[in-house]
Every structure is written in C-alpha cells, then in structure tokens.
Write a structure and sequence with these properties.
The complex is a heterodimer.
Chain A (H helix, E strand, L loop, with lengths): L3 E7 L3 E7 L3 E8 L8 H11 L7 E7 L11 E2 L2 H12 L5 E5 L4 E6 L5 E7 L7 H11 L6 H6 L12 H13 L4 H20 L8 E4 L6 H11 L3 E2 L7 H19 L18
Parallel strand pairs in A: 1-4, 4-5, 6-9, 9-10
Antiparallel strand pairs in A: 1-2, 2-3, 6-7, 7-8
Helix pairs in contact in A: 2-8, 3-5, 3-6, 6-7
Chain B lengths: L17 H4 L1 H18 L4 E4 L6 H6 L3 E4 H10 L4 H9 L8 H16 L16 E5 L6 H9 L8 E4 L16 H23 L5 H23 L10 H13 L4 H20 L9 E7 L8 H8 L2 E6 L19 H13 L3 H6 L5 H12 L4 E7 L3 H4 L2 H11 L3 E6 L5 E6 L3 E6 L9 H21 L3
Parallel strand pairs in B: 1-2, 1-3, 3-4, 5-6, 5-7, 7-10
Antiparallel strand pairs in B: 8-9
Helix pairs in contact in B: 4-6, 5-6, 6-7, 8-13, 9-11, 15-17
The chains are: A alpha/beta, B alpha/beta.
Chain lengths: ~280, ~475
C-alpha cells in the first residue's frame, strides 16, 4: 500500500507544504516571515488538518528551501534547485528551463526530460532581481501586491526605469509619480526592469523550451508579460506556481520510500512532533 | 573601524597535508623578517607583485620583496581587510576597483599618516618599502596603477615599472614567428630592472649568483610540476584547499632553497599518502577542478565543506604558476636574463600549440580539457571575484566554449515510455560569486546552498552515468 509522504519548502517569505499518496492529497501555502518566522510548523499543521491526517501517518518528509536545515521533523534535506526541477517535471514533462522568481532571490534551472538538473544560476545577492523589488515598488505606490500585475498590463507606454538598484529605483519611481507618470506605466517599467535582469541571468544557461515560471513571480501577469517579451519566448506557468518546490520534495520523499521498500531497508525518520521552526 | 567592529575570526581550515599546515607560520615569518629588516636598515625592501619572473634578480641583489598582494590576502584571510578598504574608499576610490589594491593603498595611507603601523596590523603590518616594482603586464592593470596611488603617500619612494607582454593566441599564426620581438623587449625590461636595482642598492649585479638562482628556480619549477602531478592519484592526496596554501612557496619564495626543500618534503608526503591510499577526502565521490578565479580568502573553509560532501579538488588553474620546463620549446641560452625572458614566454604560450590543433579551442580552454582528462574530473568550480576583472572576465565564456567543443558525458534517463535511454550531457559546472577579500560580498548560507545543489547535480550524473 502506498504511504503518505510530505514535502515542505521553507522559502524566505512563504512556506509551502505538499502531502502526497498516490496523487496529490493536499497543498498549503502560508507566510514564513518576518513576524511569522517561527510559525512555519503551523503550515504543516494546517496541511495535516486539511488532509484529515495525524502526523504519525506521514511516512517520510523532505524539506527544501532556505530554511530546510532547520525543520526538526524533516527526514532529509534537498536543495530547492533539485526539488523545483522534480516538481516541474512532474507537472509539465516538456519543461527544459525553469525560472523561479521568489521573494528574495531568483533562479534559472536547466533540466532534462527526467527532471534531473543539468545546470543552474542564482541571483541571491540583489533584491533588484527578486520579487522583493516589486514589493518595494508596490509599497511606494501604495498598491496591493496582488493588483500590480493587472494594473501594469493597462500600460500603453511603459516608463523606463534606469536604476538597477531597488533603493534608487524606489526613489526614481516616487519622483516619476510626482511628475505625473501614470501608475500603470511605472509598474510596467518596473516589471520590464526586473524581467531584463532575470533574462540576463538565465541567458547564461542557453535557454531551451519549454520555459516554465515558478514562485511568486509566476502569479504576476505583468511580470510574465515583460519576461516573455524580453526572452522572446512563450512562458508556461503551473496552476499553482508556488508549490513546485514542495511538490518536488514530496516526490523525492515518495521515491525514497519506494526504494526502501524495494530494497527492504528500514527508513530512518525523525520524531513526528511539531515544533517551532527556526529559520536561518 | 575599531577592533570591536572587526569580523569574527574564521574557523581554522583543516588541511590534508602537513606541508600545507606549515604555511601559515611560514608567511608570518617572512612578513616578520621584512619588519626586522626595515628596523635594521641593512637590506633594501621592495614592494612588488607575483608572477613577474623577477624574483631571481631581486634575491641576487639581496633585495627583500614585500608581496603586497599577499599582505592584502592575509588581511582578507584574517577577516581584517574592511577597515583598510574603507580607508581607500574615504580617499575617493571605488569599491569596485581591485580590492587587493584598495586594501594596500588604504593601509599605506594609514601607516604614512601615523608614521607607524596602524593599530593591530595583521601579523605586524606591511613594512615601508625603499622602492616599488610595478608591472604593466597584460595580466592585470592595477599592477601598474596601485603603486602610483600609494606613491601619493610616499613621494620619496621611487617606482620602476616592468612591462612583460606575451604574444596573444592566434589560431592561424605560430606565436614563434613573433616571439623573438617580444623576447628582445622583455630582456630590455629586465635589464632595466637590474640597472634600477643597482642604482637603488649601490651594488653591482653578481651574474654568477643570478645564474645559480635561476637554475634553482628552474629545478623548483620542475619539482613542483612533478609534485602536483601526483595529485592525479585516486583518491587524490591533496586538494585545492591545500594548494591555496602551497601557492606560497610558488608565488612568494621562488629562487630560495626553502621553496625547493618545501616541495621535496611535500612530494615525499604525497608519495607516502598515495602508497597508503589516503585521500584528501575519506570516501572520494567526486573529483572537481577549480577552473579559475582567485579564492575568497576569508572563506577557504568552503573547501572543507566540499570535502564533507565527498568532493576533492585534484587540480586548479589558479596559482599553478609553473609548468614543466622540459616540455617548453624555448631556445637554450647561458645568459640568465635572456633565460628569464624565454621562460616567461614559454609559460604564457604553453598551451598554444595544443589549442591550435583542436577546432574552436583557446589556450585557457585547452588547459581545462587536458586537466579534465588527466585528473579524471567530474565537474568544474569557478569563482567570480567581482573586483578582479583580470581573472573573472572570460570564465563563463571558457565554460561555454568547453561545452561546445569537449566530449559530452553519456547518461541514462528514463524516457516518456518508461524505457532507459542514453543522452549526452555537458560536464557540470558551478560559478561561485563573491570577492577575494571584501567579505561584504559573501554569504555563507547562499554559497553553501549553491554547493549543495551542485553536489546533488554531480550525484545525479554519477548515479546515471551510462559508461
């Protein structure tokens, strides 16, 4: 009989949990921080509740993301690069390039047809290459983050954002707003600025189709439009672009369980107890 | 920056060899010797740079070299460069310039302002020189500008600039057609250096002694090559982490008996380790090449982190500043200055013939290919140090070129129909990003996250390798 397994992806801003059996049982997304930094276990608790499962039923748990090393109930830690690759391959088998746009970093991942990582690049040094850039600008413009994508698509004349630093760009946007530049044009300009940075980074990988966008950036239609223009390619987005890392982690957990059953090896697992999760 | 504001001291890096472990005290001792010499005033001291093929001239004239890049590296490794970098910034110099140079310029300004060493200077500090020998070579432009900037604070200290060019690689032209011109020019540059040092020291060059020192260096070059080739053994007895220590006698102690003796001992140690089957890593799973870029001196522990994942580094392109002389096609000469010039040209054109024979290859790429094969390499790691344009420009291009012309690795993948198929993949590579000594550019968490992901990729290649 197939066992329940779980993947937990602790990103810098969101925590995602996926529970699998034969297929997807449940998935949950909740905030990681900053004020909820120590509450990531609540997301696991919620996922278990939604699936009506006691924690003890989860045979194996793989954690991923920046906080993966600090999940006390995780049986194995795998990087988000490998997990995104596996998750995307499961959902979109024709995917060969993944662009993951997260809250604090962005990544490009080249994969083969079996979901194995061939190469990757990361921007982890500069907010201007991540979702944080959009958050800061949305905040400056006094707009809800969920509205920025739609609003930017109304632009007829995207503004040129010349500063590549988030802080300077924030000032540039505020100054342009004062000069009467339309909010939609500013947002479109901001999306193009971010898309160009991400495009330059992933072009190191010799991009192959199909290109899949994951992470919070995958939910932003304005950014997807800009990125598609910059790359000159059609982009594919999974139905829920935030969970591909957790899904990949859960798929790897399932493989580990199946392998152990096949080889009749006892799996070493951690105690199934929810504790506060400390983020690095 | 005050003492309290200094970065936390790095954890001590574990070395695989006794020889590498002995390097720290050795560097401390030669820095202390320069300070003693300054106090005694009997010998002249010269600021200078590595890889100029001029150590023999300096040592034959009893000039003590002060390796300014080395001192900056020491500040970086001790996580104590920031206060000197900030000094240089306060002089109006941008952080995006070479941080070795910034560190040295900031230190010089501070020392000259105080009239003594800045407080708690790493290993006692860098002594004031009697003269400076800069080097306007193709390799690195800060080498000709750094000392000009430092001279603002030491206007009484003269500079001699040696220019050491070499013919650039051209696919359709044999470099030997033009290297005679280069040779004449370099000889003139080196003879000019001799004249300058004679003037500064009020001594005449002893050419017999120079010949002996050149011979000693040549023997050391060949010995180093023989020693490093031992690292081809599986498991590898010494990795790049250790080689970042053993570069010290190569780069800072050439033309000394100590450097020669060091490699005699290291060779013996590696032979013993190979005989016992001892590797740098207990269970070697992956063999990696450090394919370019200066290291992040404050983060050498990252090599231990690689080791903890079963990864060993049998070879590196960085600081392998010697090549076997017996494999160089350079003319014989009894004149030691002429020989130094030929050795310079022989070193920089070493891979040209091989690169010319392989379509679309280039000397740097050819070196990668040769060492991938000789050292049985599974993956390449490079470091882009943002402040070092010389090294980091071209690294990604080298990887792209390598991917184009080097044979791919056959791997099994599961096809859509569930059947195993063989596909061909490029050698995996990882590019780390930070700086040589500017620790503000480095994140241990992010770096190790990248290393983890790279190791997972290597493991996938290892498990799925078809043949």
């Amino acid at each position: 009989m197939t066992s329940y397994v779980a993947g937990i992806d602790i990103g810098s801003t969101m925590t995602k949990v996926v529970i699998l059996k034969d297929g997807l049982i449940t998935s949950i997304i909740g905030p990681t921080g900053p004020e909820q930094r120590r509450l990531a276990n609540k997301v696991m608790e919620e996922a278990l509740k939604k699936a009506s499962l006691p924690f003890s039923e989860i045979m194996y748990i793989v954690s991923t993301g920046y906080g993966r090393m600090n999940v006390p109930f995780s049986d194995r830690q795998i990087t988000e690069i490998t997990c995104h690759a596996r998750g995307v391959n499961y959902l979109i088998p024709e995917a060969r390039t993944i662009i993951d746009i997260g809250g604090q970093d962005s990544k490009g991942i080249k994969i083969d047809r079996s979901g194995k990582v061939l190469d990757f690049v990361m921007n982890d040094k500069c907010a201007a290459g991540s979702g944080r850039f959009i958050e800061v600008i949305a905040d400056t413009l006094g707009i809800s983050l969920k509205d920025v994508g739609e609003l930017s698509l109304q632009s007829r004349n995207p503004a040129k954002i010349s500063n590549i630093c988030t802080i300077w760009a924030q000032q540039e946007v505020a100054a342009s707003l004062a000069q009467g530049v339309k909010i939609s044009d500013l947002l479109a300009g901001v999306h193009f600025s971010l898309a160009e940075r991400i495009g330059r980074m992933v072009s190191r990988l010799k991009i192959e189709k199909a290109i899949v966008v994951t992470g919070g950036g995958g939910r932003n239609k304005g950014l997807l439009h800009a990125l598609s223009e910059v790359l000159g390619e059609r982009l594919t987005v999974p139905e829920e672009p935030l969970i591909t890392g957790a899904l990949g982690a859960a798929l790897i957990a399932r493989e580990i369980v199946e392998e152990s059953k096949k080889n009749r090896i006892d799996l070493k697992t951690k105690e199934r107890r929810l504790e506060e999760v400390e983020i690095l | 920056m005050t003492e309290q504001q200094k970065e936390a001291k790095p954890k001590k890096r574990m070395t695989a060899t006794r020889a590498a472990a002995s390097i720290g005290p050795m560097v401390k001792s030669f820095i202390t010797e320069t300070l003693q010499a300054r106090a005694e005033g009997k010998q002249k001291l010269a600021y200078t740079f590595i890889v100029c093929h001029h150590e023999e001239i300096l040592r034959a004239m009893d000039v003590i070299p002060i390796w300014t890049e080395n001192f900056a590296g020491v500040c970086g490794a001790k996580r104590d460069a920031e206060r000197f970098l900030q000094r240089a910034e306060s002089l109006g110099l941008s952080r995006s310039l070479c941080t070795y140079a910034l560190c040295g310029i900031g230190f010089d300004q501070w020392r000259e302002e105080l009239g003594e060493m800045p407080p708690d200077s790493p290993w006692g500090g860098m002594a004031r020189p009697d003269f400076m020998i800069s080097s306007g070579q193709i390799l690195c432009d800060p080498r000709s500008k750094w000392y000009q900037a430092s001279q603002q604070f030491m206007p009484d200290v003269p500079i001699y600039n040696i220019d050491l060019p070499y013919p650039l690689f051209q696919r359709d032209q044999d470099h030997r057609e033009v290297w005679g011109y280069y040779h004449k020019y370099i000889v003139k540059q080196l003879r000019g250096l001799v004249a300058f040092v004679e003037e500064q020291t009020k001594k005449k060059m002893d050419y017999d002694r120079l010949r002996e020192l050149v011979d000693l260096s040549d023997r050391t070059w060949n010995l180093i090559d023989e020693t490093y080739r031992l690292r081809k053994a599986v498991p590898c007895p010494m990795g790049t982490g250790d080689a970042m220590n053993t570069m010290v006698p190569i780069c800072f102690m050439m033309a000394t008996q100590k450097a020669y003796d060091f490699f005699v001992e290291l060779k013996k140690e590696l032979e013993e380790k190979i005989a016992k089957g001892e590797g740098e890593v207990e269970n070697e799973k992956y063999r990696l090449m450090w394919g370019g870029g200066l290291p992040a001196w404050y983060a050498l522990n990252d090599f231990n982190y690689f080791n903890s994942k079963g990864a060993s580094f049998p070879v590196e392109t960085t600081y392998r500043m010697v090549l076997p002389l017996y494999e160089m096609d350079i003319p014989e000469t009894k004149d030691p200055i002429e020989h130094l010039a030929w050795r310079w040209l022989g070193y920089w054109t070493f891979w040209y013939d091989k690169a010319r024979k392989r379509p679309d290859s280039e000397p740097d790429v050819e070196r990668l290919i040769n060492w991938i094969e000789e050292y049985k390499i599974d993956g390449i790691v490079m470091h882009e140090a943002f402040s070092c344009r010389t090294w980091h420009v071209g690294l990604i291009w080298q990887l792209h070129q390598l991917g184009k012309i080097y044979k791919p690795i056959p791997l099994y993948v599961i096809g859509k129909d569930g059947k195993r198929e063989i596909v061909m993949k490029e050698l995996p590579s990882l590019i780390l990003e930070s700086d040589i000594i500017d620790i503000t550019s480095y994140s241990e968490v992010d770096t190790r996250n990248k290393i983890d992901a790279f190791i997972e990729t290597l493991e996938s290649y290892r498990v799925n390798r078809a043949y």
